[in-house]
Amino acid sequence: SSGINAEYGTLPEPYRSEMKGVADTIGLPEGHIVLYNIFYEVFSVCTSIVAEDPQGQLYHARNLDFGLFLGWDNSNDTWLMTERLRKIIRNVDFKKDGETVFQSASFLGYVGLMTAVKAPSFALTLNERFNKEGGFIGIYQWIMGDRSAAWMGFLIRDVMENANSYSEAKNILMTHKLVAPAYFILSGNTTGEGVVITRSLTETLDVQALNITNGRYYLLQTNYDPWTTCPFYDDRRTPGNICMKQWKQDNVGFKSLFNVLSTKPNLNKLTVYTSILTVRDGLTTWMQDCKTPCTPW
Fold first, then answer.
1. Which of 15, 89, 180, 244 has the most CB atoms around it within 10 Å of its CB?
2. For residue 74, how far is the Cα from the chain centroid?
3. Which range, of 4-8, 73-77, 195-199, 212-216, averages the lowest pLDDT?
4. pTM above the 0.70 mark?
């Protein structure tokens, strides 16, 4: 914990002061709050979807799954951390001068963002990218003194606070150096404005985009590169695509996206919440709990 406390002082403002405020308020060591706020860089599992209906309305949805290998409760058939996180989910309005600037689905005490919408401009979700370079390399580089990369949750919040358009947000997400590899799923307010950006620590490797003319009315991203095959033990992409194609574009909306993300294995024992975001209607979040029998991930 002493090592974490030492690195705490190197984290960027205002997040460092906000984490100190959380630690002081609830009486926990600052190192514990830092670990809690960088869990994306260590391990998380997610599914995100951007879809466009026939009228050009864009819908953005995500499942956040977290808690793998952090303890199993045999009495309830649940992951211990997943169960605890469900109790502290909140939809948060970030305001300035009394006006809402953007909204986020988040956890109490977490100062970054992974799921957010800035009406009327864009919505953004973050998925971990399972990759050999992982977040551990970026964290090591930070500890060794290279502070040029952005921590993921902090970067998303910076984008929500400072970018005023879909294109501006896209440019930041494609170019900023990162602590961990990632997928940024971004949607806008105009037909065709939807992308999955695949990132390494230093560069954009791929951009998958909506293309209504060619029949590509949705994008579905889990935690594996779009041009690769998902491993047999964690293929949420194939069932998700099957569900989306069964609903068809005519039925894109809250009901269909919630149904897709509530269908196993996209809904699994790690699923903490489902959020659906639009730049028109804002953010709606549901606590999820996959009852046994259910896949562990």
1. 180
2. 28
3. 4-8
4. yes
